[in-house]
Amino acid sequence: MAVPCPSSSVGFYGLDESDLDKVFHLPTTTFIGGQESALPLREIIRRLEMAYCQHIGVEFMFINDLEQCQWIRQKFETPGIMQFTNEEKRTLLARLVRSTRFEEFLQRKWSSEKRFGLEGCEVLIPALKTIIDKSSENGIDYVIMGMPHRGRLNVLANVIRKELEQIFCQFDSKLEAADEGSGDMKYHLGMYHRRINRVTDRNITLSLVANPSHLEAADPVVMGKTKAEQFYCGDTEGKKVMSILLHGDAAFSGQGIVYETFHLSDLPSYTTHGTVHVVVNNQIGFTTDPRMARSSPYPTDVARVVNAPIFHVNSDDPEAVMYVCKVAAEWRSTFHKDVVVDLVSDGRVCYRRNGHNEMDEPMFTQPLMYKQIRKQKPVLQKYAELLVSQGVVNQPEYEEEISKYDKICEEAFTRSKDEKILHIKHWLDSPWPGFFTLDGQPRSMSCPSTGLAEDVLAHIGNVASSVPVEDFTIHGVTNRTVDWALAEYMAFGSLLKEGIHVRLSGQDVERGTFSHRHHVLHDQNVDKRTCIPMNHLWPNQAPYTVCNSSLSEYGVLGFELGFAMASPNALVLWEAQFGDFNNMAQCIIDQFICPGQAKWVRQNGIVLLLPHGMEGMGPEHSSARPERFLQMCNDDPDVLPDLQENNFDINQLYNCNWIVVNCSTPGNFFHVLRRQILLPFRKPLIVFTPKSLLRHPEARTSFDEMLPGTHFQRVIPEDGPAAQDPNNVKRLLFCTGKVYYDLTRERKARGLAEQVAITRIEQLSPFPFDLLLKEAQKYPNAELAWCQEEHKNQGYYDYVKPRLRTTIDRAKPVWYAGRDPAAAPATGNKKTHLTELQRFLDTAFDLDAFKKFS
């Protein structure tokens, strides 16, 4: 907190003690005078100290907007502005009672359980409720929240209003988990609830997004979900939907994702028109002191980069906290910009009363701090004593408030004992009304054809190669089509016709990294004039959003994941500039996309487009690391599923944690994008997209492969001479993606079209056991080999080999033709690249290559 300025400091301004009683005219920029235009210097100093040197510290002078600075001055300098009615004070006390007694109840019942309680910052609950109340008063009807584990159960209970018995059930180790997934710790779970705000008597929807232990990782997810909800309700200024993000001090200054998320806040395709940030300032990170945790004076200094005002407030002064929270909510509704509330101590104690969790002993590392903390009187007790002394409440009324809430908790505890099973579905943070049946199941287990009528395809193709705006001059090179790009265009355009919003985001996606997409055309004669032809395809079509992102992977992929959470009726895609950049967003992939449904029963149809291919361009932009995605697939490589099951392929998709494909034709890429929406459920889709194939003369698809009745091909079998006489085939090569074209070129050059068959696996996960079994049985005399262009310890081999062995006779080996193991994804030497390529092609087509190993 700020320290009052001694009167002797007036000497800094060329004044002395004799000037203290002189009257000075006040500048027009200050509000300390109220109705007066002049005041004695002594009174000026006193009023400034009352405004800025008590329990509230304000950072705003860095904001480069005079109107905004003056607005803040008025909120804190006006004499007597921070006043509360007795009714407001009683409400504040009741909220503090609930916040405090909830934690005490959990401690009494489950003293040996980790719960990451809120002890020491119980004022957070009335603070959040104040922000929500004021926002509701200003027209907000949907608040989306994200927060770490500390205090999460209290927020769920007393802000979101999760049923207490459902929370208490999470502590019962004897309850069997429902067969809905693997679940997550209770302090990671989310919630969605619509209720009446008792202060404003208006409907309000509250959503707390589930998150992992990775601090701040949920920030961009919350922002993306908020943006989506604003988009779907036409809230172009953020007047109906808003977000609140909670942070710890160490994570707020330490985690780079905070900075990435702040820099999305004012970008046209990412802004949510202001977020209220609340920092629970523990003055410690687990066991790390602030002097070891950050280089800046305050953990909130990162917010300065977007001109967000920062309000530091003593969390032991509940009324000051409530006032600051009201101002923060008003700022957001007035200026639609971010704002930060920093809940801190008065400089003597920290506000994390326990250690990192209830089992942790903080005296090991902060002995003096925690000796002082244990002397500190709880904020509820201090505020209750204050209100009793003011006559706002009496002691019996205060004790009755406590007894009333204790009774609520005890009754809920009793009801919780009647529960027989733990259901994760009760904790869903993003429901999709009407998409599933009432019990949360798909409405069918089938997928219609993904093909389209020829006139629809032709219309989309014509628009793609023209400009639907008058007097618009395009670059000559872009007025042509590329088959792979056109297939994508047709998939997107057809979904727009069907009312499906399509959103494509990522670095340089408007043009495409490889200059192949051109979904945004630029007038060559008028600066900044652009056209998006896809938004002119059909009358009453769904909108198409294509947006170049900031140079961020972690933040932007998290944002798009959040956007995809809001509705199943949208195709949301994130494209990496190069496939290997996905590892900059590894946390979102590992903690949200891969296990999200298993942990939180939350389906998501996000699509990742990852350019991949070994093309002699060095180690950095060659591999999208398919081995990592495949390693995290949840199917068992040693168990052959029931291939006779009805809708086997759809059931496989339903049971997998994500879909991984590597298409070798534009047509199959078209079909898999359309299938993503036509499926009766949602799964993340990982697509390894091509680079050189974008313009490869043989990578073409005819309309015949995209007409009604056609569909995505999980496996593309051999259709050449080898397929006509399968008994004569000596080797069956399995492969995926671009290497197929290297193999067919080499096979033709060697004249082995009748002796070597090549089968392409287009869908790697879930693995097409049924179709590959047919392929293997078709060629009874053939050796089986897997061929890939990636190194042996990378790519697909370690994933494919055990599954192929499970599919066929285990006594029959699956040989390998590809690059040797390596540390780097690819060589940086072009000649070495070509030598490696020829070497594994020689292996693939030398029909005696494996005999020495037999």
UniProtKB/TrEMBL annotation:
- The Transketolase-like pyrimidine-binding domain sits at 482-696
Record keywords = Calcium, Glycolysis, Isopeptide bond, Magnesium, Metal-binding, Mitochondrion, Nucleus, Oxidoreductase, Thiamine pyrophosphate, Transit peptide, Ubl conjugation
What is one Pfam family matched by this protein?
A: E1_dh
Provide any one GO MF term from the record.
oxoglutarate dehydrogenase (succinyl-transferring) activity
Q: What is its EC number?
A: 1.2.4.2
Entry's Gene Ontology BP terms: glycolytic process; tricarboxylic acid cycle
Q: If you read the UniProt record, what top EC class would you report for this enzyme, in one word?
A: oxidoreductase
Where is this protein found?
Mitochondrion; Nucleus
Superkingdom per UniProt: Eukaryota
Catalytic activity, as annotated: N(6)-[(R)-lipoyl]-L-lysyl-[protein] + 2-oxoglutarate + H(+) = N(6)-[(R)-S(8)-succinyldihydrolipoyl]-L-lysyl-[protein] + CO2
Q: What are the annotated GO cellular component locations?
A: mitochondrion; nucleus; oxoglutarate dehydrogenase complex
Its needed co-factors are: Mg(2+); thiamine diphosphate
User: Which SMART domains does the UniProt record give?
Assistant: Transket_pyr (SM00861)
NCBIfam families, per the entry: 2oxo_dh_E1, PRK09404.1, PRK12270.1
PANTHER family under this entry?
A: 2-OXOGLUTARATE DEHYDROGENASE, 2-OXOGLUTARATE DEHYDROGENASE COMPLEX COMPONENT E1
- This chain belongs to which protein, by name? 2-oxoglutarate dehydrogenase complex component E1
